[in-house]
Amino acid sequence: MSVHDKVLWRIKSLSREVLGKAGSDNYRQKLVFDLLNAVKANDQDRYLWILLRVLNAHSKDNPKTRELASALMAVFPSSEADFEKVAYSVILGIMSGGES
Amino acid sequence: MEGEELRFTGNWFIDAGILGFVNLMEEVYILNREQRDTLATLQALLSSQTQETILTTFYYAYIRYYMKHTIIKFRDKIQPKGRTKLAKEIARKKEEFSPIIRQCFQKVTIDQILSASREDVRKRLLRENEELRKLFVEYFERYNSEIKKNTSQNKKTPVQTVKDRLGIIIEIPFFQNLSFLNPSKNTRNNQAKVLKSFEMIIYERKIKTKGTPNVLDKTISKFMFAEEEFPNESYGKLSTLDDLKKLVSLPQIYLLSFPIPFIAINYRSYQTNVLFYTPDILVTYKVMKRLETKRAEIKNRSPNIFKITWNSILDELIENKGKFSLENLYLIEYRGLDRQSLVDVEYIGIPKLHASIILNDAIRESLNVNLPIKIKDKSKNKPRENLTLSDFEGEWVLETFLKNRSLFSLVVRHLNFYLSLGRPPYLKTSLYALAIDAKLKANDTETSVFGKSFLERPKQAVMEVNEYYEDMIKATPAIKGISESINEKNLVHPLFSAVRRHNRNAFVNILLRALLQVGNKNNASLINSYIFRRILNNDSSWEDFALALVIGLTGGGVDVGS
Q1: Considering only alpha carbons, which residue of chain B is nearest residue A28?
Q2: Is B23's pLDDT higher than 80?
Q3: Backbone angles phi, psi at B415, to 5 degrees
Q4: Which residue in A40, A47, A78, A100 has the most chain B C-beta atoms within 10 A of its own C-beta, making it the best mutation to test that interface?
């Protein structure tokens, strides 16, 4: 079953709150590049490894982090199409974090 | 027929004949109008006259109508060879013959025929036939040897055919199987027999001499099997003209009038015969009239008569009946006849959804554009910068839409073509086309026949198309605004290629990498949200929205022609 739109919205908004302001602009840019490479290669393991490492380093005490982690846990491992959607939702969330 | 109402039956084949009957009467007779329109006048005529009288008026009108069209055809067949003095003289003579035809076939006061018997009409037709023969032969016979040069050896020239072969000067390709039109029967000195044979068809309903006399088969209706090809009587009974009497009282005249309302138009490289049919005789009549006028207006200069046809229909329908008629409009089209079978018959309806979309003025105007897709004549080798719109071959967006073909692929072809020329593509038209395509794709995902899109009045469809369009039109300047900082030139082709390969992962990946370098956060945020809502969260039509971004990136904005 494909990932529900609402779940994607939730993942995007949580990613924004948790990682949108993590570290410097350069740090986030590097992070997004790494994540984009992983999605491009459809490498779910690597993608999760990078993401969880960042979550652990920057905001492990934040309740939103736990929420995001459990949302991700619910959808991983997933099909290629779903992985693409979830992965990009996280990336778009991070990228929109520095705004406003 | 007495008291019968002149209205459509709902059976389009008969209805085409009814309209043909109206056109026929109108072309041949001066109707006593008393300030009423043609349909009302004919209605009054049908109500007040006996069947016999109606049949007699039809008899005269039908033969006269086809005599006129046959002689015009023969005149057009005269094609002298070369540019000699004689050839020029023949061409001039042909021109001069037109007013003579008009003179010969001036409209007749219907009262003259109403009071005539069938014998009177026969005599009159025979007389007119001989006058016409004499006139044509006198006019062109002296050029026969010149005309012969351009005719294949075994064939007779039009002059010889009229002079020596034909009895009644009439050829109706559509009904070549009817006995009175048979070349072996319609011969010189057989004129009276031919007319009597036609009388048998219309007065007695005797279509054939062998088999079932009043059979409704291929002889009289090209959509049926021939009686000889229909041996499965245990499965179904052959229909006869009497069966059609449940619908109309004189089916034979309507069946014979079937080809008359079709208008021959040149479409691209071929000619086709079209009829726009709605279940309302008045609307159909008006639409076809308007079409006929437009065709006459643009006879020698139209690049795309099909565009004109649809335009005239839409104008008429929008002025009058709007949605109902448009939803029930059918385009009936055939290219011609091959061995007495219709070739390339098309029967196209406009779906409800399409009808509602097209009735929106802004959308219709945006789609009413020829989107250039290739160079007309590459052999000219014109430099790119000197190419003008007239050098391009386009596809009319409205036609693509009405024929239910993919608007997405049309926009792809247009963008591809314009990119190769280094020009900005049409923005408004392309975006509306993509928005509609997205809406149609969204509807396609519905699995049940009587789903939401069928039952709900499609008002919402227009709203949604506009909503998609608004989204696209906001995203395009946003991406154009950041095009410099993301090095758009290196980006357009990979993005376009990803869309064409339907590879969403590649598209989003490439675009996000580029967006990371953007300084303008507002624009980036707008595109970010657009990607999430319209591309990532949209499995059915993400390509349409992605292509809109590519168009924005190329700086689309020149909209010509709408």
Answers
A1: B516
A2: yes
A3: -65, -45
A4: A40
